[in-house]
Every structure is written in structure tokens, then in C-alpha cells.
Design a protein that fits this description.
The protein is an alpha+beta fold. It has 4 helices and 6 strands, in the order αααββαββββ. About 40% of the residues lie in helices and about 40% in strands. It is globular and about 45 Å long.
């Protein structure tokens, strides 16, 4: 009986001290993706499409714009966004509403606002991003959005 009681006390002490590893990992993922979203907005605002492209998985990253074919691969994404910039695309604001991290993947659901150079908001809508850990960093694997207008 004494041995069983000692074992239970030791087990209870150990379980109270074990950190919630999954919760800590999820918080770290959430912070990292928030930083990546800041970089997403900053590189677009500054017109640095090469840096913007590094946010995507190199060969298999994909943007799926509304009413257009999918754009696959970092080089194609950079070219697409350079064209958008030349058309007057100036700024975007992202707001994460939901984030579901799963080990080396995460799903983000949010809302966006788009601004053209010299204009107020020209679009708003929602997006879903499938993040993937690639080359040791969180990168966009799939990005799809559509307008509320």
C-alpha cells in the first residue's frame, strides 16, 4: 500500500510539472505566422516582390486569385505580383481571424483590405492560407482569396 501511495504521489508531482508542449508549439507557430504576415504586408507596401516571393514554398507555392488561373512557383508569383504592382496595387491589410496549427502545417483564415496607389480602400474580402514548414521556415503553400464586393 505504501509503495502504491508513493508511486501515485510521484506521478501526480510529475504530471503537474510537465509543460503543455503542444500549446507552447502552437503559440510559437502563431507568433511566427503573425511575423510572416507582417512581412507579407511590408514587402507589398514597399514593392519588394523578390522578398515577397520568399514567403512562398519555392517550387510548389501557389496563389489562387479570383477569376484567374492559379499562379504556381516562386518565380511566377513574383512576376504576377510585379504586374499587380504596375497596375497600381499599393497596400494590403491582413487580419487573422482563425489559425489552426498542425505540426508542420497550419491553416489560417482571415480578412483583407486592398488599397490602390492614391486611393482609399478598393477591395475587401476573406482569405485562406495553407502554411507549410519548408527549408526550416513557415512559408505559404496555398493562398486563396475572394472579394466581398
Amino acid at each position: 500500500m505504501f509503495t502504491l501511495l508513493t508511486f501515485l504521489l510521484v506521478m501526480a508531482a510529475c504530471t503537474e510539472k510537465v509543460p503543455d508542449r503542444k500549446g507552447m508549439d502552437n503559440q510559437r507557430i502563431e507568433k511566427t505566422i503573425a511575423k510572416q504576415n507582417e512581412k507579407f504586408m511590408e514587402t507589398l507596401r514597399n514593392g519588394n516582390m523578390e522578398a515577397f516571393g520568399t514567403l512562398f514554398v519555392k517550387e510548389s507555392g501557389k496563389m489562387m486569385p479570383p477569376n484567374r488561373p492559379a499562379v504556381t512557383g516562386r518565380d511566377s508569383i513574383v512576376a504576377y505580383m510585379k504586374h499587380q504592382r504596375n497596375e497600381g496595387f499599393y497596400d494590403i491589410k491582413l487580419q487573422t481571424k482563425e489559425l489552426y496549427p498542425y505540426s508542420d502545417y497550419a491553416i489560417e483564415i482571415g480578412e483583407y483590405e486592398v488599397f490602390m496607389e492614391g486611393q482609399d480602400q478598393v477591395d475587401q474580402g476573406k482569405y485562406m492560407v495553407y502554411w507549410k514548414k519548408s527549408d526550416g521556415q513557415w512559408r505559404i503553400y496555398r493562398d486563396i482569396w475572394n472579394s466581398n464586393r
